[in-house]
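SDR family NAD(P)-dependent oxidoreductase
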Amino acid sequence: MHRFAGRLAIVTGGARGIGRAVAGRLADEGAAVGIVDLDAAAVDGAVASLRAGGATAAGAAADVSDEDAATAAIGDLVAALGGVDVLVTMAGVYPWVPFEAMSADVLRRVLDVNLVGTLTAVLSVMPHMRTARYGRIVTVGSGTFLIGAPPQSAYIASKAGVVGLTRSLANEGGPDGITANCVLPGLIETEHLKEQHDGADELFAQVVRSQAVPRRGRPADVAAAVAYLASEEAGFVTGQSLLVGGGDRFL
């Protein structure tokens, strides 16, 4: 499949985990891909891997919660690629903080990365998409938004904001041929998740039992959903939230 032949895509948080799978999927289908991520070494590695596979790729290291740095990084990638047709905002943090340990500072940090970082990325590409009268924006929420799972109050609040922002973006961009949709991943098996949680295997066992499709979620599952929403085929789909969780819950 070459749905993205000639298309130019930027993926924030695209150097590792689900974001890396998304960048790879878009590249495999013909897109030139720009990656923004906090870890410069990971960015270099991801770009080298994409190029080794025959893709056109560029990278920039930046913290998406730093508005000036993120704007400059995305601007550099737009210049390097020669434009931007697709934006996927995968960058995010998901601390597990018991509510009793929550603070305004914790909430602000999570909001700055997950919600403000998403807004900054969109603001950086929207003028280019408006000029081209074409664009695909895919944001990332979370299936936890639907159930308010503890102990993730800051994370869930930020992802609720992303869903709301995406719905507004659909109306903002629609007249100029720009769609905006949100993917809501369920529990997905990544190296970071396994490193962060000693009880990951037990967590997966519990969650998989509640799914209609009884297996662990993979980064490739999310990447496939993103690729659809980022494609020309999804031109009449906007403002929607697509849950990718094996049927762990239904919208």
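thats it. Residues 104-132 form the longest helix (29 residues). Residues 122 and 185 are 20 Å apart (CA to CA). bye
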